[in-house]
Write a structure and sequence with these properties.
The chain has 228 residues and is an all-alpha fold. It is 79% helix and 0% strand.
Amino acid sequence: MSEADRICVWLTGLAPLAVLGMLLLSARLRRCWSFGVYLAFVAATNISVATGSQGLDWFLWTWAEIVQGTLVMAVALEIALRAFAGLPRARVTARVVLLAAVSASLALAVSGQPLQAATPDEFASAMVPRFDLAATLLLLGLLAVAGRYELPLDDLHAAIAFGLAAYTGLAAAGLHVLQVLGPPAHRPVSTALSAGYALVVLHWFWAAWHEEADVPTVVLARLWHWRS
């Protein structure tokens, strides 16, 4: 690992800790406990890679990415449960749509036979993009249901959902580019993913820090229909 790569990994490890710290200071971590677990896991994984002397273990990295993708799905489900908790009439449809999204996500994640890959690189190439796409699909399902019912996700939940959907989609696309173009694409893809993640983390930090706006009365009146 080059010095520049090590610095980049350090930053991607410390940035989630900054967001987690802001969520704790603003007492907003309770809005989405699974997101705190996701941030802590990402931070621990990247910091352990940055401090390691053996370089990147691709097999361990692959499983870390799989766990990370699973945590993203857990975040999406928690946001959905919280968003629709007070809307019984909408909750039935939301449950069906999200169940379909979860089923499709899991089917996508475990499709094929990646465990028979000959090398760790082949294993990573097979599994990680699937989990990124699965997580993206579930997040898009959540956002689609929220849009269908014109449900105003609170600022933090919206920032989490949009940020994770954008980054997991970008990661899946970047890994596909690496599969097609090979090593020459490593540097531009790595730069693009780092820049994308930095923007997402900044958005999360802002959402954790700023005061939320009140939901307009007209929106509350529209949502009343789904409460009974």
